[in-house]
Amino acid sequence: VGFAFVTFGVGTNGKRRPVLITYVDDEIVKFLSITSKYASKSENIKKQYYPIEDWQEIGLSKESWIDICSIKEFERESFSIEYIGDLTTNDISGLAKFTERFISNKS
């Protein structure tokens, strides 16, 4: 998990957001969004949010969820990463199982 300053459009407007980085090379960064805004979401959207169990251990400031349907890709040069840590083994396993269930329920 890393904090990232994401620029939306032209310029330096953007916000620091926690993200789960899934791929990085010299040209692109791919990630899933992490949010603390769970309660206000619809029941349908909540189904795609994995609850991070060990959120404090990885450096997040509040309870958070990974949106498994929010795969995003940015050019590496427009993206700065402030690394804060890795998902715990517990959350890696939990995320994998959650994703498998989500996909099988969609079929």
Provide tags for this entry.
107 residues; alpha+beta
Task: Provide an overview of this structure.
This protein has 107 residues and is α+β, with helices and mostly antiparallel strands. It is built from two helices and seven strands, in the order E-E-E-H-E-E-E-E-H. Strands 1, 2, 3, 4, 5, 6 and 7 form a seven-stranded antiparallel beta sheet that branches. The chain is globular, with a radius of gyration of 14 Å. The termini are far apart. The mean pLDDT is 86.
SSE blueprint:
Elements: E1 2-7, E2 14-24, E3 28-35, H1 43-46, E4 49-51, E5 65-67, E6 72-75, E7 79-83, H2 89-106
Antiparallel strand pairs: 1-2, 1-7, 2-3, 3-5, 3-6, 4-5
Kindly, what is the distance between the CA atoms of the first and last residues, rounded to a whole number of angstroms? Answer: 29 Å
Averaged pLDDT? 86
Describe the largest sheet. 7 strands, antiparallel
* Helix vs. strand class: alpha+beta
Relative helix content: 10-25%
* Shape type: globular
SSE string, helices as H and strands as E: EEEHEEEEH
Number of strands: 7
Relative strand content: 35-45%
The low-confidence runs, each spanning 5 or more residues with pLDDT under 50, are none
Q: Rg from C-alpha positions?
A: 14 Å
Supply the number of helical segments.
2
In short:
This protein has helices at 43-46, 89-106, and strands spanning 2-7, 14-24, 28-35, 49-51, 65-67, 72-75, 79-83. It is of the alpha+beta class and 107 residues long.
